[in-house]
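Hi P.,

Sorry for the delay on this. The queue was packed all week, but I finally got your sequence through. Input first:
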Amino acid sequence: MRTTLDIPEDLIKEAMKLSKSKTKKDSIIIAIEDFIKKKRVEKAISMEGRLKFKKEWERLRHER
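Then the structure:
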């Protein structure tokens, strides 16, 4: 999907440098993927203690 964004050049350059990307597109994709991953981890951490697992969890985990 094509999108036009007005992103500060210094942020793009730093993102490209840190991600070792050769293109702006690649660095933006990496940044979005990292953001999504971070938010999913935060959500999982916030649910700590709210999830209940059956006693079979350990056995099922090792069957994979």
